[in-house]
Amino acid sequence: MKIVSRYLIPLSLAVFLSAGCGHKSAEETQTSPQLVQKDGQSSLVFSPEDMANLTSTKVKEVELPGVLETTGQVTFDDRLVKTITSRVQGRIEEVRVSLWDTVTTGQPILVLYSPDFMTAEEEYLQAKSTSSLQGSQAFAGMSEWMVTAAKRKLELLGMSDSDIEAITSASPTIVMRAPMGGTITQNQTVIGSAVNLGDVLYQVATLDRVWITADIYETDIARVKVGQSFEAVTTAFPNEIFRGEISRVSPAIDANAHTAQIKCELPNPGLKLKPQMLARVRVITRPGAALVVPQEALVFDGDAYYAFVNIEQNTVVRRRVEISSWNEHGYARIVSGLKAGEQVMPQSLKLNALWHGTRGESY
């Protein structure tokens, strides 16, 4: 028994010591990278060995040329658009123009029936007959006032001076005329349909002068101003350049796209430019600057682009960015989210997978 105990005790101690030597602390068993929360911000912390295997590149600031390029859309000049509404309650008897017809000022476009016309015309004819009677000076003044008031009522119902002068008998129908020359861009008229006061019948617009509405990025706003010249090229007329000048700069910014709108006014010879037509716009402006990064430093996740930024030694954060196209292949322009000189990681796909894996999410 003594012999057995002499060998068992040293063997048990050896097993215990070997087990103790093989034990590692929780820190030593952690994997790299680690997700760390600091000041409400999540970041990936790598071991020095793993960080050495990653590369980074700087966000570069490059000079922009004196031409600002963007895309736009042809729209009506709203100062040259007029809506024709019904000024009475009645019924459409005859339609004389249709959608996209070209009309001239004063051209008959519609025949409208309404008892209101007959009542107003009877009042006018009665006032005229009364004014023709001889009487005192006071009576003559009152008669003239009645004729003026009756004529004014007919004008408010939409009758022209020539139509009013031509009235010989009261009629419940009236010929409506185009208030301006242009193109019928909206037609809500159907023969026999009832109309109410204020109902839209037509919309007339002239295309002799149009606007091109274009979006510019927030970072380029300081480069544009009212009065600057611009050039536009459309897909319909790729070999023709349309020239005009900026007439409006939007006072508001689209918070989602970080863009502002500009309105460019230009003549439209031959009415070639049509509303909703797309155009490439070049604004002649002073040089500026833009931030660019390699496309491989960006990853699209969910509904946004992200970049991984090395903020300090061994620490990387994921940051949402807004981008736009860039004319140099393999690069993207940064609109917001990054600053010049910051270090971004080109291994965005791998880092994004690590980010989701560390957070315990599927990817």
Description of the molecule:
- With 363 residues, the protein is α+β, with helices and mostly antiparallel strands.
- Helices cover 23% and strands 39% of the residues.
- The protein is built from 7 helices and 24 strands.
- Strands 1, 2, 4, 19, 20, 21, 22 and 23 form an 8-stranded antiparallel beta sheet that branches. Strands 5-14-17-16-15-18 form a 6-stranded antiparallel barrel.
- A hairpin with a 2-residue loop joins strand 20 and strand 21.
- Helix 4 packs antiparallel against helix 5.
- The chain is elongated and about 110 Å long.
- The two termini are 64 Å apart.
- The relative contact order is 0.17.
- The N terminus is likely disordered.
Number of helices: 7
The beta-strand count equals 24
Residue share in β-strands:
35-45%
Give the rounded overall mean pLDDT.
Answer: 85
What is the terminal-to-terminal distance? Answer: 64 Å
Largest sheet data: 8 strands, antiparallel
What Rg, in angstroms, do the CA atoms define? Answer: 39 Å
Q: Give the low-confidence spans.
A: 1-29
Specify the overall morphology. Answer: elongated
Structural class by SSE content = alpha+beta
- Helical content band: 10-25%
